[in-house]
Design brief:
- By secondary structure, the chain is α+β, with helices and mostly antiparallel strands.
- The protein contains four helices and 24 strands.
- A hairpin with a 4-residue loop joins strand 15 and strand 16.
């Protein structure tokens, strides 16, 4: 026993005088991103069932399902016969009102000229002036009636409110429709976006990290990296999810109605990184704590670490940095301050 103690003492004394050899490794940072893979659906900015603002009979339909149309393009038309007749009637009414206005103006101008040469009853002058004002009002009324009938006539023609693709046609020629009857379904083929439903327990992490990156994977395994455009801070009470919107670029090959896989990368809330090192580097203390030895300026330094997880020959710890040179030599007599030489170069990874 005395001989063993003497040998250990001699070994420690020699270690202070002569550098011992150790193997080291640089810790590897464990990825702390949480990856959520969810299914999203592609929707168009505009998806509308087009109706008429007037009742009538379908006279013409100029497009069919699958056809691309431009904004303002004529898509369908109701029978125009009655609307045109009402417009012509209003135009004739305007002519009558204008004739009356001209006659009232002539009579008024005549009485004004007479007042310059002789005395004219004030009541007659006022009467002519009132007749002129009434005629002018009738002209304005007739002009408004024409504008009304022209607008009604215009509403018998259904135009595309935006550029897109005709998805469905609901009516045929000769059908009677009302303003509640859908005629065509028009879906915009630009300004597409992805909507994805996210479990509500992640809402705060999304709210705190505005620039969360996403990978969009299609059924052809093409991957696009995009950012979330908008969080919708309302939880669905049935699914307990909230929605996120991801705007697609204009030149995308995707189309409305497609399903895609959306992988969301959430940063870890941990402030201190988790490092992965070999299990042989860990020293366990009698009080239950853990430490490792690192090499600084060719001398050993003990660093207390927090053990997070242990798997096979690797452990996950906190308290180290990727710049540390961690000693992996399983030698129980290592002590702080010992001079060492490294026999294996610093290597990243475990």
């Amino acid at each position: 026993m005395v001989r063993s103690i003497a040998f250990v003492s001699f070994y420690l004394f020699s270690s202070y005088l002569y550098a011992i050899q150790v193997e080291v490794i640089t810790p590897k940072i464990k990825s702390q991103q949480l990856e959520l893979t969810l299914t999203g659906s592609i929707e168009a900015l505009n998806d509308s069932q087009l109706t008429s603002l007037e009742s009538g009979v379908i006279e013409k339909v100029f497009v069919d399902a699958g056809q691309k149309v431009q904004k303002g393009q004529v898509l369908a038309q109701l029978d125009l016969a009655l609307a045109k007749l009402h417009l012509e009637q209003s135009e004739a009414g305007l002519l009558v009102a204008q004739v009356k206005q001209q006659e009232s103006q002539r009579l008024y101008d005549e009485i004004v000229d007479l007042t310059k040469h002789q005395v004219i009853a004030k009541t007659l002058l006022a009467e002519r002036k009132a007749n002129l004002a009434n005629s002018q009002a009738l002209v304005a009324q007739a002009q408004a009636a024409i504008a009304l009938q022209q607008e009604i006539l215009n509403r018998h023609t259904i135009k595309a409110p935006f550029a897109g693709v005709i998805a469905q046609r609901f009516v045929g020629l000769g059908e009677w429709i009302t303003p509640q009857t859908p005629i065509l379904q028009l879906i915009s083929d630009s300004h597409l976006r992805i909507y994805v439903d996210i479990p509500q327990e992640y809402f705060n992490r999304f709210k705190q990290n505005a620039n969360i990156q996403t990978d969009i994977t299609t059924n052809t395994h093409q991957v696009q990296s995009l950012s979330i455009s908008q969080l919708i801070p309302i939880s669905d009470p049935s699914s307990r999810t909230f929605r996120a919107r991801i705007d697609l670029p204009q030149n995308t090959s995707l189309i409305s109605g497609m399903a895609v896989n959306v992988t969301l990368y959430l940063p870890s809330p941990e402030q201190q990184p988790i490092m992965v090192i070999p299990k042989s580097a860990i020293k366990r203390h009698p009080d239950g704590n853990y430490s490792v030895f690192i090499v600084e300026q060719s001398k050993l330094q003990r660093v207390i670490v927090q053990l997070i997880n242990s798997q096979f020959e690797q452990v996950e710890v906190k308290g180290l940095s990727p710049l540390h040179q961690v000693v992996t030599t399983a030698d129980s007599i290592l002590e702080t301050g010992l001079s060492v030489t490294i026999t294996k170069g610093s290597q990243s990874g475990v």
